[in-house]
Amino acid sequence: MNPPAPSRPAAGHFPSGDPVTHARALPYARALGLHWQDVGPARAGLRLPFSDRVADARRGTVHPLALLGQLDQACSAAVFAGLEQPALIATLDLRVDYAAPPAPQGELLCTAQTTYMDASTALVRAHAVCVSSGATVAYASSAYAIGAHPGMRDREATVRQDSFAPDPAEWAPHDSFEQMIDLQRDGDGWVMPFHRRLVGAASLPSLHGGSTGAAMALAAVDLVRGQCPPVPALRWLGLSVRYLR
Predict the structure, then answer these.
(1) CB–CB of 134/77 below 8 Å?
(2) Would you give the end-to-end CA distance of the chain in angstroms?
(3) CB 114 within 8 A of CB 73
(4) Cα angle 181-221-34, degrees, rounded to a multiple of 5
(5) Could you give phi then psi for residue 141, rounded to 5 degrees?
(6) Tens of pLDDT along 192-243?
(7) Which residue from 75, 76, 56 is spatially nearest to 66, judged by alpha carbons?
């Protein structure tokens, strides 16, 4: 059973009015299965239950790159929760450091806090823990531009009402997180086909920063496996994604 919907904090402005509606408007958040845990002034918490679509098939745990999406979403939510007036935001960069592997089939809780905010910039720190043990599995830090958003021509954040309804393709069965991302080798590079389930801003629509970062990281791992066979079990230590436009 999901926890009660959080009340709107004293400060904070989410594009679609409140945190829960905002999350429903993000197909990638729905596809991951993210749930609100907590929200307050400049603070947000999100739970990531274990499921096949977020699984690392080799280990039976939440995939580190599904966790990347959870951290990215929680960090942006912490910025919205700290706004004194409505504004658009754009992610500038996201750094994730992995502390320990998640527990097998374990649920993860991510808590993010905005540590600095002015009229144009916000800095956020976050960490994720295993719900069953309380052990920390990852840390994150992120920077945001306030008053900007890719593809938007004005400062009004609009969300189409029809974007709230889940697309059946978002919930199609997937055996692993890598299958849900659907990265494909194409000559000397890789292609991530556009799927609605990978979208972050449904009103544009544009890909979620978490799905974009995951595609880049999966391509890097595929390159390592292809150049250095056989590769022993890889352990994720950290990654940094810089968003240019």
Answers:
(1) no
(2) 38
(3) no
(4) 35
(5) -135, 145
(6) 999 889 998 877 778 999 999 999 999 998 888 777 767 667 788 999 999 9
(7) 56
**CA 241 to chain centroid:** 12
| pTM confidence score | 0.88
Q: Which residues contact 206 (CB under 8 A, 6 or more apart)?
A: 150, 151, 199, 200
The 3-state DSSP class for residue 215 equals helix
Q: Do 64 and 56 meet the contact criterion of CB atoms below 8 Å apart?
A: yes
Asked whether 42 and 10 are in contact (CB, 8 A), the reply is no
Residue length of the chain: 245
Question: Closest Cα partner for 33 from 48, 12, 13?
Answer: 48
φ/ψ region of 187 (left if φ > 0, alpha if ψ in -120 to 50, else beta) reads left
